[in-house]
Amino acid sequence: MPLRKSWQPKPCALLPLTLANWAASTTIVPEPEGGAHRDYEAAANLLDISLQKHLAELKRLPPADLLVSRYNKFRNIAQFFKTVA
Fold first, then answer.
1. How far apart are CA 72 and CA 61, in angstroms?
2. SS3 call for 34
3. Residue 79's pLDDT is what?
4. Which long-range CB contacts under 8 A does 38-42 form with residues at least 24 apart?
5. Looking at residue 23, what is its pLDDT?
6. More confident residue, 66 or 28
7. d(Cα 8, Cα 79) in Å, to the nearest integer?
8. How far apart are the C-alpha atoms of 56 and 75, rounded to whole Å?
9. With contact defined as beta carbons under 8 Å apart, do 20 and 28 qualify?
10. What is the C-alpha to C-alpha distance for residues 10 and 24, in angstroms, rounded to an integer?
11. Rounded distance, CA 68 to CA 21, Å?
12. 61 to each of 24, 28, 32, 33, 55, how far by Cα in Å?
């Protein structure tokens, strides 16, 4: 079938909400105004804030609970059903 000039491919970028639904990400770090490529320092600061927050939360967990939680999370990435260890 010949391509028409009016035909354009559909965008296929994964949206952050799609990634969250697939359990591939748990947090979306905001970008500075204009995008991370325009303000590296602000982007790094936003990432630092997010990483520090999550690291503090993880440090409060007992190591055994953390291992089970991480195992279950990575077992369920992009799955359409949940598995539990």
1. 15
2. coil
3. 67
4. none
5. 54
6. 66
7. 31
8. 24
9. yes
10. 23
11. 21
12. 21, 22, 31, 34, 10
* Confidence (pTM): 0.58
Report whether pLDDT(4) > 80. Answer: no
Mean pLDDT, rounded, of the chain: 78
Tokens of 40: 């590296």
Judged against a pLDDT cut of 80, whether residue 52 lies above it is answered with: yes
Which amino acid does the sequence have at 16?
A: P
Structural tokens at position 12: 């296929």
Tokens of 13: 């970028």
Determine contact, residues 73/22, Cβ cutoff 8 Å. no
Q: How far apart are CA 73 and CA 82, in angstroms?
A: 9
pLDDT bin (cut points 50, 70, 90) of residue 28 is confident
